[in-house]
Hints:
320 residues, alpha/beta, Rossmann fold, 2 domains, three-stranded antiparallel β-sheet, binds adenosine-5-diphosphoribose
Amino acid sequence: MIEKIGVIGGGMIGGVLCQEIARRRLARSVGLVDIMPPDLAKGKCLDIAEGSPVMRFDVRMEGSKTYEVLEGAQLVINTAGVPRKPKPDGTLPTREELLETNLKITNAVGAGIKEYCPDAIVISIANPLDAIVYRLNQILAPPRGRLMGMAGVLDSARYRYFVAEAAGVSVENVEALVLGGHGDTMVPIRSACRIAGLPVTQFLDEETLQKLEERTRKAGGEVVKLLGSGSAFVSPAWSALEMAEAILFDKKKIVAVSALLDGEYGVSGLFIGVPAILGRNGVEKVLEIPLTDDERKGLDVSIEAVRKTCAEVDAMIQKM
Ligand code: APR
């Protein structure tokens, strides 16, 4: 068990994270920071702590409006950001439209981590995912592998769920990968999708697969529309914890993560969703897997979309 996990942002995702970290006893203490008055972070931590005798865990919960609560954290999960909410005209802002607001928040997040736990491994969830991680990397400049984004685990879980449902089999039987940026250009990798070790195409026809891959790409928006306010929060939190557990228990688990590339897939200097081995050092290895021509083309389109958003980040930061 490690000493301390820091959680930044105590809203919908941060709240589930804190509960689950405590219930799973992943650390001796949790430090939660959220700027929301009067003191959202303290309130969430007190609520969880007061339930701890019933759930039988001795994890110390400490919430604060300021970042010193992160002092000494060995792992940090960042959820601070504005989620996708329908605009007054009923349409959804794209993840990129949230960029400016969330960049300002990210500047504060980066400064907080740098001051209080500069050596922590960082998993970031805030959107637009790949661009926010890119900005955090500019601020923190950590050793490669110690900063990553959570997107692929969630996108792959959604793909797996849709496949399992359509094939009428257990979700436990379905393996899949979704790569690229965490946006409409993400690429469900059909050639890596297996049901009980067999190619998914032995179970589902082309038309069904195309439909559920399209649903995967739009899955975040589907939940946003149904909820009416805010975005998915349980599955993103669980997905980040899948990564956290791989790191904390040094599992060497292969999952899709937004990782800093250094030549892999022909890309350098960008965070892109790729398969990687997660262990005690964070992203320990990026795996280059064979892709079909269509998947490679899709990945190139997605990489270009991430590159464009990161160029917007650079331009916006210059003006801030
Ligand atoms: N420092 C700490 N916390 C902050 C800061 C900051 N500078 N700015 C905002 N926050 C907090 C907000 O007060 C809020 O409580 O971040 C929290 C975000 O919580 P929610 O609004 O409930 O959003 P959530 O659904 O948890 O999503 C968080 O993850 O999936 C993405 O798009 C989503 O970017 C969003 C993020």
